[in-house]
Specification:
about 350 residues; five-stranded parallel beta sheet; three-stranded parallel beta sheet; 8 strands; globular
């Protein structure tokens, strides 16, 4: 009997047509079945219960006809009675909400629940990360992206990035056009670990970066600890190269790659294709995990980690633990939010893969 050799991510160079990028602007598989009633608020964090209440009202308020030209004719406001219709004339501009909180408090769960709860066909709602939105603009062009999204009822942007001024300005300009077309907005971002408990650090940064849109967003603080580590043991220690290789051969749908080779391959594939890079995989097995050598490589790895996490693809690895991937300089630099998120998500995926080793 011939042994089946696991596929290698380094052998894949997927082509992703622009229409697939648009069609895939829905909550990823990990969040396909989440709803407000599946979010379990921490009883010690009342802001989590309040967030559910506010977002349920926000979703209910998005029913009815699309508010074309809503930015000029007025839409429901964000003050008292948020999410409830009022007889008085509402302030100009569509409603928007910004979920402000640390890592792993359930912001993406809530954002996806909002998408699911909004009473509109899937084709009239869009959900994507900040990176995916910039990739869409790159694939379609700015004007075509505006045309494509202007007929939507709701645009949800997960992980709004504040560390790339060029992309932030690009997306802010895009959102301004969509606001004028009457599209409702919702976004999340992360409070830096060192800034937790210091008020609305992330919210202030977010609103400052999108100055022209600030009036359209209500910051909604969500406090709490990272649920991915709540009550769970520390991330398991890495396995040996032999254990990882043996598991890759024994697991149907698992890929097998040398980590340094994979990092080199990512440089040849546009980040908008990283999701397609993982198509059909049930696990990713990596040998010889080493520190990421430079910032560009690190940022590409962050995008891959996001796509693996979204698709619930467990990661089995040997070598260095994932919490030692990034140097202290990187973790203290301008992209630290991304690196902390990647560590949190990769650690969760490592736990998911533990059962692959027998």
């Amino acid at each position: 009997m011939t042994e089946t050799v696991p596929p290698s991510l380094c052998d894949r160079e997927p082509h992703v047509p622009a229409d697939r990028l648009v069609a895939e602007m829905v909550p990823p598989p990990r969040f396909d079945s989440v709803r407000f009633d599946t979010y379990i608020p921490d009883p010690n964090q009342p802001s989590q219960t309040e967030a559910v209440r506010v977002l349920e009202g926000f979703a209910a308020g998005l029913g009815g006809a699309h508010a074309a030209g809503g930015g000029k004719r007025g839409f429901l406001g964000l003050g008292k009675g948020f999410g409830k219709a009022r007889a008085a004339k509402a302030p100009a501009g569509p409603r928007g909400v910004y979920l402000d909180g640390g890592y792993g408090v359930g912001k993406t769960h809530l954002l996806a629940s909002l998408w699911h709860a909004t009473p509109a066909e899937s084709s009239l709602k869009a959900f994507g990360t900040f990176v995916e939105l910039t990739n869409l603009v790159g694939a379609l062009g700015f004007q075509k992206t505006v045309q494509t999204l202007s007929g939507h009822r709701l645009l949800c942007i997960d992980e709004f990035e504040l560390d790339d001024p060029g992309d932030t300005v690009l997306v802010s300009t895009l959102l301004g056009k969509l606001v004028d077309a009457g599209v409702a907005l919702a976004a999340t971002s992360n409070t830096l670990p060192g800034k937790l408990g210091e008020g609305r650090f992330a919210a202030v940064d977010f609103l400052r970066e999108i100055q022209g849109l600030a009036a359209h967003f209500r910051p909604l603080r969500i406090d709490g600890e990272d649920y991915r580590h709540r009550g769970l043991p520390e991330a398991p220690a890495p396995f040996t190269d032999e254990e990882v290789t043996r598991a890759a051969y024994a697991t149907e749908g698992a890929s097998l790659d040398d980590f340094p080779s994979l990092l080199a391959h990512l440089a040849k594939v546009h980040p908008s294709r990283y999701g397609a890079l993982t198509d059909g995989l049930r696990a990713v097995c990596l040998t010889d995990v080493q520190p990421v050598p430079d910032q560009s490589t690190a940022l590409r790895l962050v995008v891959l980690a996001d796509r693996l996490y979204d698709r619930e693809v467990p990661v089995l690895a040997s070598g260095l633990p994932f919490d030692r991937l990034f140097s202290e300089e990187m973790l203290n630099g301008g992209y630290r939010k991304k690196y902390f998120r990647a560590i949190s998500r990769l650690t969760a995926l490592v736990r998911d893969a533990k059962g692959l080793v027998r």
